[in-house]
Write a structure and sequence with these properties.
Radius of gyration: 20 Å
Strand order of the largest sheet: 1-2-3-4-10-9-8-5
Strand content: 15-25%
Helix content: 10-25%
Number of strands: 10
Shape: globular
Largest sheet: 8 strands, antiparallel
Order of helices and strands: HEEEEHHHEEEEEEH
Number of helices: 5
Structural class: alpha+beta
Distance between the termini: 13 Å
């Protein structure tokens, strides 16, 4: 079982500095409308992984772009400020920003998505992008047309589900002709030639911090550890 570290401001900042270059590289390859290099001044919110020896995290920039970085050294999640598939409140006010026209054909959307994967360095044999993707969208609503399309490549195929599942997903704004979302889930069995994020400091374990505070006689213990475990610990591979 993986151990949880005590997250201090110093450790959180160290992880942030370690993962920002991956965000800058991702933004540059896709030519996102983000000032580069991405610095700490451009970060509105960040959350490092709480697991020991697992340098990863997610950030939200001041312009509301969201990124998540995997410990293996790549951005595995990205969302633009407007992404139909992640909209949480479908109010009359919020839905208007998604209305538009389809200025791309289905084939153009598929070609653009494959180019996105290629620009990020993922060859077809890794992400299976040479195969037909699953398509979701665009949509017609009672009040307007939603020109957003989600493409998804999932492997292995259902008949070979005895191995770890992998997924590559891209959201395209067919009106603006831009990438609005990206998600990549690669099983630990994939051999990736990437450089993992590193930090120079060794954080204290949360269990050790709690013991030290208890030994000090403090009745109340201040901690930055998550209020609950954030899901199942990631695979160590």
């Amino acid at each position: 079982m993986m151990e949880i570290v005590h997250i201090t401001a110093q450790y959180s900042n160290a992880v942030l500095v370690a993962i920002l270059p991956y965000v800058t590289d991702f933004a540059a390859k896709l030519d996102l409308p983000i000032q580069r290099p991405v610095t700490t001044d451009a970060v509105q919110w960040s959350q490092p992984s709480p697991w020991k020896d697992y340098i990863a995290g997610s950030i939200i920039l001041t312009n509301r772009y969201w990124f998540a970085i995997d410990r293996r050294g790549y951005v595995y999640g990205f969302r633009a400020p407007t992404n139909w598939f992640f909209e949480q409140e479908f109010t009359d006010e919020s839905i208007v920003q998604y209305f538009g026209q389809d200025r791309m054909t289905t084939n153009e959307v598929i070609k653009m998505s494959r180019n996105v994967l290629a620009k990020l360095g993922y060859k077809p044999e890794i992400v299976h992008s040479d195969e037909p993707p699953e398509l979701d969208g665009p949509y017609d609503t009672a009040k307007g047309h939603i020109p957003y399309c989600k493409l998804k490549w999932v492997w292995p195929k259902p008949e070979r589900m005895n191995s770890d599942l992998n997924l590559a997903e891209i959201v395209i704004n067919m009106d603006a002709k831009t990438v609005a979302g990206f998600s990549l889930s690669l099983s630990p069995t994939n051999q990736l030639s990437m450089t993992r994020p590193k930090v120079d400091m060794v954080p204290e374990l949360e269990a050790d911090y709690q013991k030290r505070m208890k030994a000090s006689g403090k009745m109340f213990i201040n901690t930055n550890a998550p209020s609950r475990f954030p899901g199942r610990p990631p695979d160590k591979n």
